[in-house]
């Protein structure tokens, strides 16, 4: 009877380990391409905003960020529809990671909207640093993904973005868009490429 209990406990631990590994494989298989897509859109938009803002001295070009979000969600929705059509199963870990990134998107949009309102100096004592807030949110979402993948190298990218956040505080204006573009490269594009390569090697 005791042996049966021991085997049952060992089997339970084995099932848990298998579920964790399956979740890690699901994240590696599904997360890379969306990260590259969003990273490329963010980096391209950041470079465009930086260039146009510098040339015209007008911050109104930041409206391009909202256009980028609209395009990105349309493309991502199409990617998700393709995944569901292909019948790819979702593990709990992958659903959790996807939920974290969805929350990041909503919070980033809210930060941008509130940041626009705080430009009114007659009401607010200081404005919300939109770029820094988004970079910090991006670091947190990336940290969850790195933990799910057990990827220590990803952690180096995350830690390095503190420098970009600090730079955006030191040099407000067009350089903020450039900082966000670089953040997208280090936290989305490069990790996405690495994740896709790992998923391909695991097949």
Secondary structure class reads: mainly alpha
Distance N to C terminus: 40 Å
- Shape descriptor: elongated
Number of strands: 0
Biggest sheet character:
none
Helices, by number, come to 6
Order of helical and strand elements: HHHHHH
Layout of helices and strands, plus pairs?
Blueprint: H1 2-56, H2 64-86, H3 92-117, H4 130-149, H5 152-170, H6 174-202
Helix pairs in contact: 1-2, 1-3, 1-6, 3-4, 4-5, 4-6, 5-6
Task: Explain what this protein looks like in three dimensions.
This protein has 203 residues and is an all-alpha fold. Helix 1 packs antiparallel against helix 2 and helix 5 runs antiparallel to helix 6.
Features:
6 helices; mainly alpha; 85% helix; elongated; single chain; 203 residues
Summarize the structure.
It is built from six helices and no strands. It is mostly helical and 203 residues long. The radius of gyration is 20 Å and the shape is elongated.
């Amino acid at each position: 009877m005791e042996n049966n209990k021991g085997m049952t406990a060992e089997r339970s631990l084995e099932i848990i380990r298998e579920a964790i590994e399956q979740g890690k494989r699901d994240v590696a298989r599904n997360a890379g391409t969306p990260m590259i897509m969003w990273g490329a859109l963010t980096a391209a938009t950041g470079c465009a905003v930086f260039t146009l803002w510098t040339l015209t001295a007008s911050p109104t070009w930041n409206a391009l960020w909202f256009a980028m979000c609209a395009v990105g969600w349309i493309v991502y929705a199409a990617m998700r529809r393709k995944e569901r059509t292909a019948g790819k199963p979702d593990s709990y870990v992958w659903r959790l990671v996807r939920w974290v990134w969805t929350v990041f998107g909503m919070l980033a949009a809210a930060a941008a909207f509130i940041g626009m309102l705080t430009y009114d100096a007659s009401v607010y004592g200081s404005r919300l640093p939109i770029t820094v807030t988004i970079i910090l949110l991006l670091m947190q979402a990336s940290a969850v993904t790195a933990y799910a993948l057990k990827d220590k190298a990803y952690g180096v990218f995350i830690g390095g973005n503190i420098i970009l956040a600090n730079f955006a505080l030191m040099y407000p204006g067009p350089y903020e868009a450039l900082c966000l573009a670089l953040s997208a490269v280090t936290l989305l594009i490069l990790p996405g490429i690495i994740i896709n390569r790992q998923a391909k090697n695991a097949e």
